[in-house]
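SEQUENCE-TO-STRUCTURE ENTRY
===========================
Question of interest: how does this chain fold, as expressed in backbone structure tokens?
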Amino acid sequence: MKKAICAFFVGLFCNVAFATPVLVTRIVDGDTFKATVLLADGIEVMSVSVRLRNVDTPELNGQCAYEIMRANQAKQRLEELIPVGSVIEITNVKNDKYAGRIDANVFDADNRDVGLVLINEKFGRPYSGGKRLSWCD
């Protein structure tokens, strides 16, 4: 079912040049959140999992204490940038490698690219797919 919802959503918006508004419903970790997609005519797509495009943050279930600490910091920063209950915009929507999740560029209320903010503030690092580098020494 999750894969069908994701395919439906991406089918509607993957080639659209304009931004799509979403309501943030939960922060999952430093680079993923859940959202309700706000479509035209009041239609809502519930509980879409969105991963920030081109950024990698440490994992909450990390390999070492340092990674877990940094993961919690990244999650907290994402909560500050896109608080639960806020309406933000996503663009460049594509299927993620995991079913039920999409990748997108995410913009906060100040129209800043959230992934770039996390990278510039050292909460994350650039990521273009493939094997992730370790956060542990």
About this structure: The chain has one domain: 2-125. The two ends are 40 Å apart (CA to CA).
